[in-house]
Amino acid sequence: MSKPTRYRWFVVLMFFLFMLLHQTDKLLIGPLKGPISESFGITNTQFGLVVSGALLVSTLLYPVWGYLYDRYARAKLLALASFIWGATTWLSAVVRTYPGFVATRASTGIDDSSYPGLYSLIADYFGPQMRGKVYGILQFAQPIGYLLGMILALMVAPLIGGWRSVFYLTGTLGIALAVLIFFFVKEVPRGKAEPELAGFEEIGQYRFSWAYAKEALKKRTMMFVFLQGFAGVFPWNVITYFFFDYLMKERGYDSDSVLFTMAPIILILASGYFVGGAVGDWLFKRTNKGRIIVSSVGVLLGAIFLFFAMQTPIEARSTFFVLMILTAIFMPFSSPNVISTVQDISMPEVRSTAMSVEYFIENSGAALAPLLAGIIADAFNMHTAILTICVTAWLICFVIYLGALFFVDGDIRSLRAQMAERAKLEKAHQAA
């Protein structure tokens, strides 16, 4: 194995650690909902506002981060994002009033917009037929981060002084990781891993182009990706921030039962990212529609199994557990395939921007999800909030994916033709 090949897996490891610890910090507030709500004396709706504030800030900043990533060195910007994560988490632990906590938690959304640059940089280390698996490996960190957050909330927080001490811990890790990324993660030329350019020792430096950005955002496949993104993140935010509390308050689980129930479910869910990405890569080699097909199957089966799980009687814990395991297998299937699809139809120098617009649209809906869930939960119960929002959103996504199947072939062929033309120009330039 060559040194460059080994190094790209080192980059994957660094980014995996970044996503693992960042997701732990970001999602920690869900398992800590109870003690945080008690500290400030707030309702479900007020807690939903805390979460929605961070989502709103990250939503507004996605286009800014996307442009910066396509214009400047992505690795250095990711180091900056890690530092901001650590600093704002510390601020959240310091404040003692509810308005102050809303403001400081909202500031943690600044760095939540950092992933498009990470995915873009990875796309320049790995070619199209491997990206789904690599993205699946990276996204494996997200549910594992949630599980780690549960452990910190249930087992570590009581031992080290409560939820504020946990925030001090995760904030410190963010700052430490910023130093590691700054000094050890290298930039790579945009488009380096594209098949048409793979044979070149060196290629030109490509930067953000308004023309290519507009072209990518106008592609018909991208329109369907944007639509599913708006609806598709609703379930994730509702489950992330309310499911823990739902198990304890409405299904009668104690802390140990929650941990022993959710831990295997989360591990299965984590594996679903890699399985979904790997299946998407496998089918993509046979048809350009492969990733969209896998995504549509994932959201449909996720909706079906969650519906039956939520209808299970409270006393039937084993049945509930099995159905949630089945839900968890298919829930993540679309995520690595959607990210790969954006890379498949966008020019390398605008991929961060394209992904940022996708996340902007996603978060425009997601920022409302915790607040909407809180309102429904206060009016009815958390069961109704989770079931209604999740099943409806996933069924909508399934229909949208069916529409994308008609256009993805043409959009992928268009990009490959553009990259072939770029390869000719590179060859002519190097021969001159």
Explained architecture:
The chain has 432 residues and is an all-alpha fold. It has one domain (3-188, 211-431): Growth Hormone, Chain: A. The protein has 19 helices and no strands. Helix 3 (44-71) runs antiparallel to helix 17. The chain is globular, with a radius of gyration of 21 Å.
Quick structural gist:
The chain is an all-alpha fold and 432 residues long. It has helices at 3-27, 33-40, 44-71, 74-94, 98-107, 115-123, 128-139, 141-160, 163-184, 210-218, 220-249, 255-284, 290-310, 317-330, 334-345, 351-366, 369-379, 382-404, 408-431. It has one domain: Growth Hormone, Chain: A (Up-down Bundle).
Keywords:
single chain, 80% helix, 0% strand
Secondary structure topology:
Layout: H1 3-27, H2 33-40, H3 44-71, H4 74-94, H5 98-107, H6 115-123, H7 128-139, H8 141-160, H9 163-184, H10 210-218, H11 220-249, H12 255-284, H13 290-310, H14 317-330, H15 334-345, H16 351-366, H17 369-379, H18 382-404, H19 408-431
Q: What is the helix tally?
A: 19
| CATH fold field value | Growth Hormone, Chain: A
| Unreliable stretches | none
What is the C-alpha radius of gyration, as a whole number of Å?
Answer: 21 Å
**Approximate shape:** globular
Strand content: under 5%
- Sketch the major β-sheet: none
Query: How would you classify the helix and strand content by structural class?
Result: mainly alpha
Give me the count of strands. 0
